[in-house]
């Protein structure tokens, strides 16, 4: 776990060692420490592309923040959403896979969360399309938190004194329901708005903020290479949401998105959600299985390593042409060989430098997105 605790008891201990020792031994509890003035989530989010149709309420998002970092949501009180979705890592995790409540491993890499309200499908295989269901899913039916019964979850939260006030402020009464839990958490998750990267500043300043290497990388990404054909839109996550096979393997062990290809009718294999590239420099390792440790490795894969999977996206085959494809609606060249980009070392560096411009320092440092819990003793 990457959460940081401020041990209030320890400070007290410096002043009166004897008393502290006794208190610390009897009852140490984890409680949220929130500012008197409710944090502003709605303000930052409104007027940007990043909130979709969702209206954010500061009290609901505040409750959602507490729930996001609440380890009591897991069956043995050890794991919270924030254990795997780590703020300083763009709300992704540091391992190829993440560790759940009983030491169990997730089957896929933990994705970062940024501007989720702009998306219409969630998870690597796109199995969920509703943000509220999606945020309660990790609790309800993932191995990672171990709580199968939503009623049990409600009963657990009722035991915790600080929720009464938080639910009342958010919903007008202290009643705890799974619907409210899902709603509040989705408000916080939707408030994970990332619009303050160098990329955004450069765009706002009419292309004057990038250095030479970043500008070269941007030109490669948007014009010379097919990257933006998939990582398009404000969130670099595909237009709305899309899944593609990028030829990581010739035969995928994880089949990815279920169902049949809508063009050929074949059963899909190796189709995964096009992930957002926001904060990508912070979210290593990469891909659904965390196989690449660095952005350099990812770029080298696209440059020279794409495999000839029968369902490889036509966009990553030789013969693809942005202009023709988009302007004239040409049929995709079928059966083309995997694209070889033949990038020079400088071009590879430029792509990596460009990917680094997507880091949003505010999202990953602001207190309002951080773990509010501190360890303290009972009064
Ligand atoms: C043990 C680690 C772990 C915990 C705890 C966890 N997650 Fe996740 N989260 C994952 C993994 C792994 C995935 C991807 C799973 C997949 O695609 O099959 C994921 C996916 C997501 C996504 C989808 C992102 C996208 O763009 O598709 C969101 C949002 C999310 N989690 C939010 C949450 C919330 C909210 C909680 C707490 C209720 C939570 N997670 C708890 C590991 C975790
Ligand atoms: C055909 C669509 C497509 C194209 C074109 C494409 N990507 Fe991707 N990209 C994806 C998909 C899908 C994934 C996730 C694949 C997986 O995990 O199996 C991905 C993953 C990535 C990741 C890792 C993301 C993460 O969170 O782990 C990076 C970085 C990336 N792409 C950058 C690029 C760059 C740079 C280019 C251009 C050279 C590019 N992509 C071209 C679809 C595409």
Number of domains: 2
- Please name the fourth-level CATH homologous superfamily of the largest domain: Cytochrome c-like domain
CATH topology of the largest domain: Cytochrome Bc1 Complex, Chain D, domain 2
General shape: globular
> What is the residue-averaged pLDDT?
84
Helical element count?
16
> Unreliable stretches, pLDDT < 50, 5 or more residues?
1-24, 322-331
Distance between the termini: 27 Å
Bound molecules: heme C
Task: List the main descriptive attributes of the protein structure presented here.
single chain; about 375 residues; mainly alpha; Cytochrome Bc1 Complex, Chain D, domain 2; two-stranded antiparallel sheet; two-stranded antiparallel ribbon; 16 helices; 4 strands; globular; disordered N terminus; binds heme C
Describe the structure.
The chain has 379 residues and is mainly alpha-helical. The chain is globular, with a radius of gyration of 23 Å. It is 36% helix and 4% strand. It is built from 16 helices and 4 strands. It binds heme C (HEC) (2 copies). Residues 68, 79, 81, 83-85, 98, 100, 106, 108, 110-111, 113, 116, 122-124, 134-135, 138-139, 144-145, 185, 189 line the site of one heme C.
Describe the secondary structure blueprint for this structure.
Elements: H1 8-15, H2 17-26, E1 28-32, H3 42-45, H4 58-68, H5 81-84, H6 131-141, H7 150-158, H8 163-171, H9 178-190, H10 198-204, H11 212-224, H12 227-230, E2 243-244, E3 272-273, H13 295-305, H14 322-328, H15 345-356, H16 361-365, E4 373-377
Antiparallel strand pairs: 1-4, 2-3
Helix pairs in contact: 1-2, 4-8, 4-9, 6-9, 11-15, 13-15
This protein binds heme C (2 copies).
One heme C is lined by residues 225-227, 229-231, 244, 246, 248, 272, 274-275, 277, 280, 283, 286-288, 298, 302, 313, 315-316, 351.
